[in-house]
Design brief:
The chain folds into 4 domains: about 170 residues, Rossmann fold (3-Layer(aba) Sandwich), CATH 3.40.50; about 120 residues, Phosphofructokinase domain (Rossmann fold), CATH 3.40.50; about 130 residues, Rossmann fold, CATH 3.40.50.450; about 120 residues, Phosphofructokinase domain (Rossmann fold, 3-Layer(aba) Sandwich), CATH 3.40.50.460. It is globular, with a radius of gyration of 27 Å. Helix 11 packs across helix 12. The protein has 23 helices and 24 strands. By secondary structure, it is an alpha/beta fold. Its cofactor is Mg(2+). Keywords: Acetylation, Allosteric enzyme, ATP-binding, Cytoplasm, Glycolysis, Glycoprotein, Kinase, Magnesium, Metal-binding, Nucleotide-binding, Phosphoprotein, Transferase. It catalyses: beta-D-fructose 6-phosphate + ATP = beta-D-fructose 1,6-bisphosphate + ADP + H(+).
């Protein structure tokens, strides 16, 4: 029961075994309980807690909680030696114990759905809360659409607008109220004008999102009821309020949260092992895709600074203190939600074409929407190409406007249509289309084929001047096999599908007992989905192409499962990437396990197939797709200005054909020509993949003895206040 259990002692502090944490990966909330603890706020309470810890020889604490819990932990550490001396004086512990347990090490992990802790891009639980909100918004949108209603949704966030802001981005809300960025004076008029304009444009529904702590510029609360009354009085629209409340804290954790929390758990242990009496208490967190350690008190102070700035009405400062990820979200939302009147838009006289290439991936539509709207804001005419390069060659190309992409964010698949066809056999026709439509830049959203396509188009520049224009690729594929990017749009949604399915399968297996499931995932030769799916679902093994395996390993896995069946956890889960080995097929592995497990366990197999490409995009994919695509369009504008000479665009250097990818902590533009050396073209995968470092983690969690490479663990850094111009790639 959190600190309460530490103060009460007794049965509240128990040693855990391997099995006692089995099957809790897919459970929401916390199985060890948590409680707000008044007594820990007093010195007496902390004295009692110290006594309970010393009696059990505990000098390392890992605290998972929000800023309150973490501040408490730090105070406890600072008082530790004083508390021990006092206990010795009262005769509760002996002098030997004071010496032996002289130092307390603590490490924090931030578990808070509000994502309100400075210094970390994503706190544990935020992504799952976004899943809950988006599920509700998607459901409400269908009813609002039918009835032509306006919905005011209130989401959690007393002091932090992160959930409100990201869900507004992820569902394309008409208006959002957050504590850090109160609306300007006269917002009532502006909002009503915006809502009625949208109705006039045939938009049948309006969604307004309100954070529970929303305020106006005089620090007066803006409630969901107040917003509703305003819309009804001024516009007479049929308006409903939905308060999401504690739904947001519940439910099963998303794949992202499971992997994040598993990675953070490892980091926490490493940080404790390396802690000395002189190192400051730290929190482990994620920056981009990189694990980092930050001094706990610096983060807490900065988190309190935000509140102070808000109380004093320094709102721009508050947004900046929230960090780069928050600021990026806000800027992207402002860019995409409000269309400026045509008279105010610049006129660039450039035409930009957008197309999808490869297999469908959830989040492609969010990326197209962002590209179209940012492109229009920059003054370009945007053309949509239907059905990839094949459609391009056939002249399936049309101008697309702001309103055409309304409501696209939450749609799965590819609305523009996508094909795997490469441009090489249509070069002449595509060049014709580019000339006819006067296309000055290309934005390609897709998977490995998109990357190959851009390589082909840039190779054809010698022959065709039409291809001497800026071209950019945004990676979108469930397989996450594009070089130059840690993540691609669609992979998170596919991972959630796999995780959900595995959860259900595990449930069925634990009902029947002694059953092992073998599950085949997609991904081509790339083992990302199998490996990360195994980590998120708590699997016993994952077979992937990148790590060769032989019959001895298969045998070891079977023996491992046989041992496991003797414990109280009588079920097994094995994932296999579709192309991990041409001879050890899913059927082969199934038959091998069935034979070798005779009398101990029985087997079932399951091929997940194309369900991994479908479904509504996850919050991560909507947000990632929106932001990465907006950034790509801004790059196109910059390149167009640079390459415009004597009345025409001419770009023929390598750095005018780029792939925009997430690399560790930043979004970076990389010339596709330079990525060639990093690519295994035969198997269509990058030669080096970051997630292979997480492979031992999965094995350790499945109780295999293996070594974990700690060279990549986070080093202690300081909380940096980013200068204004540091444009980094926080997602």
């Amino acid at each position: 029961q959190g600190y309460q259990g530490m103060v009460d002692g007794g049965d509240n502090i128990v040693e855990v075994s391997w099995e006692s944490v089995s099957s809790i990966l897919q459970v929401g909330g916390t199985v060890i309980g948590s409680a707000r603890c008044k007594s820990f706020r007093t010195r007496e309470g902390r004295l009692q807690a110290a006594c309970n810890l010393v009696q059990r020889g505990i000098t390392n604490l890992c605290v998972i909680g929000g800023d309150g819990s973490l501040t408490g932990a730090n105070l406890f550490r600072e008082e530790w030696s004083g508390l021990l001396e006092e206990l010795a004086q009262k005769g509760k512990i002996d002098a030997e114990a004071v010496k032996k347990y002289a130092y307390l090490n603590i490490v924090g992990m931030v578990g808070s759905i509000d994502n309100d802790f400075c210094g970390t891009d994503m706190t544990i639980g935020t992504d799952s809360a976004l899943h809950r909100i988006i599920e509700v918004v998607d459901a409400i949108m269908t009813t609002a659409q039918s009835h032509q209603r306006t919905f005011v949704l209130e989401v959690m966030g007393r002091h932090c607008g992160y959930l409100a802001l990201v869900s507004a981005l992820a569902c394309g809300a008409d208006w959002v109220f957050i504590p850090e960025y109160p609306p300007e004076e006269g917002w009532e008029d502006t909002m009503c004008v915006k809502l009625s304009e949208n109705r006039a444009r045939k938009k049948r529904l309006n969604i307004i999102i309100v954070a529970e702590g929303a305020i106006d510029c005089h620090n007066k609360p803006i409630t969901s009821e107040k917003v509703k009354d305003l819309v009804v009085q001024r516009l007479g629209f049929d308006t409903r309020v939905t308060i999401l409340g504690h739904v947001q804290r519940g439910g099963t954790p998303s794949a992202f949260d499971r992997i994040l929390a598993s990675r953070m758990g490892v980091e926490a242990v490493l940080a404790l092992l390396e802690a000395t009496p002189d190192t400051p208490a730290c929190v482990v967190s994620l920056s981009g895709n990189q694990a980092v350690r930050l001094p706990l008190m610096e983060c807490v102070q900065m988190t309190q600074e935000v509140q102070k700035a808000m109380d004093e009405g320094r709102f721009l400062e508050a947004v900046r203190l929230r960090g780069r990820s928050f600021e990026n979200n806000l800027n992207t939302y402002k860019l995409l939600s409000h269309k400026k009147p045509d008279a105010e838009l610049p006129k660039s006289n450039f035409n930009v074409a957008v197309l999808n290439v490869g297999a469908p991936a959830a989040g492609m539509n969010a990326a197209v929407r962002a590209a179209v709207r940012v492109g229009m804001t920059e003054g370009h005419k945007i053309f949509a190409v239907i059905d990839g390069f094949e459609g391009f060659a056939r002249g399936k190309i049309k101008e697309i406007s702001w309103g055409d992409v309304g409501g696209w964010t939450g749609q799965g698949g590819s609305i523009l249509g996508t094909k795997r066809t490469l441009p090489a056999k249509y070069l002449e026709k595509i060049a014709d289309q580019m000339r006819t439509n006067n296309i000055n830049a290309l934005m390609v959203i897709g998977g490995f084929e998109a990357y190959l396509g851009l390589l082909e188009l840039s190779a054809a520049r010698e022959k065709y001047d039409e291809f001497c224009v800026p071209m950019v690729m945004v990676p979108a594929t469930v397989s996450n096999n594009v070089p130059g990017s840690d993540f691609s749009i669609g992979a998170d949604t596919a991972l959630n599908t796999i995780t959900d399915t595995c959860d259900r399968i595990k449930q069925s297996a634990s009902g029947t007992k002694r059953r092992v499931f073998i599950i085949e995932t997609m991904g081509g030769y790339c083992g990302y989905l199998a490996n990360m799916g195994a980590l998120a679902a708590g699997a016993d093994a994952a077979y992937i192409f990148e790590e060769q395996f032989d019959i001895r390993e298969l045998q070891a896995n079977v023996e491992h499962l046989t041992e496991k069946m003797k414990t109280s956890i009588q079920r097994g889960l094995v994932l296999r990437n579709e192309n991990c080995n041409e001879n050890y097929t899913t059927d082969f592995i199934y038959q091998l396990y069935s034979e070798e497990g005779k009398g101990v366990f029985d087997c079932r197999k399951n091929v997940l197939g194309h369900m991994q490409q479908g479904g509504a995009p996850s919050p991560f994919d909507r947000n990632f797709g929106t932001k990465i695509s907006a950034k790509a369009m801004q790059w196109i504008s910059k390149k167009l200005k640079e390459t415009y000479r004597k009345g025409k665009v001419f770009a023929n250097t390598d750095d005018s054909v780029c792939l925009l990818g997430m690399r560790r902590r930043n979004l970076v533009f990389q010339p596709v020509a330079e990525l060639k050396s990093e690519t295994d073209f035969v198997h269509r995968i990058p030669k080096e993949q970051w997630w292979l470092k997480l492979r031992p983690l999965m094995k350790i969690l499945a109780k295999y003895k293996t070594s974990y490479d700690v060279s990549d663990s986070g080093q202690l850094e300081h909380v940096a206040m980013l200068p204004k111009e540091a444009e980094t790639g926080a997602i």
